[in-house]
């Protein structure tokens, strides 16, 4: 499934979020099971399948990292290109290693302030990567050169690493909260 | 509609909304004119105490009469049964302060031993409460349509399934399970018509929910939800009861069932009185005829006991806000639901947490049932609110147990529902023909810390070398938040059969047996019921098809109008007969014939939604330009 096609968006990383919300709600107004209770069995199952697809596409497009992955998959001809995925930049790996160490030290010390500072830092890097991705995807769309594809793939994997890091922070916060 | 009147001279069946609460339950409906309203009993009381007393002979007592005798029959009177829904017999809840006799300490379902040598499950107890509500609604409304039953948003799959089973057992046509906070938001949102982002703080007798949602022109979209399905006013009562027992010189662990019941009930009354008083004095009469004991509780003392419980809600609220990507000051309002939000400490805590005074203009005991009634009305398509839609989310992540006992998430929490996701697995041994799968729900990293939902065994995998088979396991969550699992083997392309061995709750056979035992389902009724249901279904489909043909005639292909009209007329003729199977075939035939037309209708509404509302006129013109002949619906239709 191509989430961009499902919600009628062009293959671009930039996305008008309010238009996404509008389309999503308008689609669910006719597809959601609650709107089809009086329909025939085949109509109900047809709209239900579509409602599920729209929910999934919406979930992917709303999320910067997931949207980047989906766009890369759409542009490089299908999902799951393991060779490209694993070729992570050594600089990125070093950066993540350092972030992880700082996080695990702060966790040990139960230093919540340090952890939230760290999370803010990563979020700010995330925003920078997101901006860079928008132009990198633009360049790739203009001409599909291997160098440009590699650049995009590198940024996407960077976003993925940041996301995973922030998920870990969130899991730690949940534990601390409960 | 003409057909309905032939078979059913009574007024159209009204759909109902039910709040099946921990301490109280109630039923509401939307009348033909005016807003939603609750059904009251002969004393003018809307709240039915969620109490069921089993007797040595005869039907159990439900509600206030059961509550009155609770102290004399503490073990036979089940209160707060909701806390046991979907729970295993070894659940910690069974070891908390309470007077019950449990039939077993193990197994997938809690079972109470009650009078008359009976053993009952929480589903059966809840069904008694639902039956009583159904009776009340029938007395007021006559024929009932379907029912929407509310559940805490944080209820897991097992608890939801148990609630739905209870509805079936009570002979209700359960249209939907609706999350309680979403129901409250629906009641408020339609009253105020104000767009914005809201939090619903719902603290009931036994459950806590927080839901963050956006209301935009009639669409209620849940952004995140969180909660604790074992936290509520009951826990405040228990904390206070513990202290009262100590005041009376009794160790809580050594108290008799009757004593526990008396003290829990006194604690509840004191808690209620402390809402309007700074200090309460009460006399507690021990059940053994001993001298009554005077106790005095100040609000400060009570607050000190309740505070740790209330503070547990704070962490849950902060997480829900974070999941929604919001700060407290970005909310446009906080809605209160659930009786426990009457406790002054809870109100001040919520105001402090969100930095604004919460909304409580609708009775927090009734708001959920009123919202459920509105939703039932919407689902039945009777109301005058064509654009209202609720989009809810999955409250707890769903996943499977992976290697090393780690929980692997397949659908994360706060995913909009209905939703579906698949995961591919492979075999680890040569010629392996079976594959077992452990389905989990929860947020914890390790499988053993998550809720175990089911163990599936996939069988019939064609023999092949290890690692070659590709088993796609698909999770599907419906609009009730209920999970279904399917699986297929991808290399052979064959849909594989799954054998489900539920590791929790009642099996389908259990529920079927209970249904057969229930008096409303006496064998003679079954055939008549099936016929009636098929007739209603036939008319529903027929009118829906008729309406579709009338409104979207331009999408009909050449000659399609005639074939659909013919199938419609045949279905209606068959529905006048006595053969339920023939009606079923007629429904299927109409469905088959109108399917391409239905597909065109769906495609067009998708195109419109993607293009924006204002472009629908353009769409219509394009349809004509493509050469599709507009067929005027009414012409030769058989009225």
Q: What is this entry, summarized?
A:
The complex is a heterodimer of chains A (178) and B (639). Chain A has 178 residues and is mostly helical. In chain A, 79% of the residues lie in helices and 0% in strands.
Highest-level CATH class of the largest domain in chain B? Alpha Beta
The largest chain-to-chain contact, stated as pair and per-chain residue counts, equals: A-B, 39 and 53 residues
Number of strands of chain B: 27
Roughly how many Å apart are the termini of chain B? 11 Å
Helicity level of chain B, as a percent range?
25-40%
* Main beta-sheet strand count, sense and barrel state of chain A: none
How many separate helices of chain A? Answer: 8
What is the third-level CATH name, the topology of the largest domain in chain A?
Monooxygenase
Number of strands of chain A: 0
- The general outline of chain A is flat
Q: How many strands, what sense, and barrel or not for the largest sheet of chain B?
A: 6 strands, mixed
Poorly predicted tracts of residues of chain A: 79-85
Q: Tell me, rounded to a whole number, the average pLDDT of chain B.
A: 84
Order of helices and strands of chain A: HHHHHHHH
CATH topology of the largest domain in chain B, which one?
A: Nucleotidyltransferase, domain 5
- Mean of all residue-level pLDDT scores of chain A: 85
Determine the oligomeric state from the structure. heterodimer
Rg measurement of chain A, Å: 20 Å
Outline the structure in words.
The complex is a heterodimer of chains A (178) and B (639). Chain A has helices at residues 3-6, 17-31, 41-62, 64-75, 82-86, 90-108, 112-142, 146-177. Chain A is mainly α and 178 residues long. Chain A has 2 domains: 3-62, Orthogonal Bundle (Helix Hairpins), CATH 1.10.287; 79-177, Monooxygenase (Up-down Bundle). The model of chain A is unreliable at 79-85 (pLDDT under 50). With 639 residues, chain B is of the alpha+beta class. Chain B has 3 domains: 7-231 and 314-390, Nucleotidyltransferase, domain 5 (2-Layer Sandwich), CATH 3.30.420.40; 398-507, Substrate Binding Domain Of DNAk, Chain A, domain 1 (Sandwich); 522-625, Substrate Binding Domain Of Dnak, Chain:A, Domain 2 (Up-down Bundle), CATH 1.20.1270.10. Helix content of chain B is 37%, strand content 23%. Chain B contains 15 helices and 27 strands. In chain B, the strands form 7 sheets. In chain B, strands 1, 2, 3, 4, 10 and 11 form a 6-stranded mixed β-sheet that branches. Chain B has a 5-stranded mixed β-sheet with strand order 17-12-13-14-18. Chain B has a 5-stranded antiparallel β-sheet with strand order 20-19-22-23-27, with no helix packed on it. In chain B, a hairpin with an 8-residue loop joins strand 15 and strand 16. In chain B, helix 6 (233-247) runs antiparallel to helix 8. Chain B is globular, with a radius of gyration of 27 Å. Chains A and B meet through helix 2, helix 3 and helix 8 of A and helix 8, strand 18, strand 21, helix 12 and helix 14 of B.
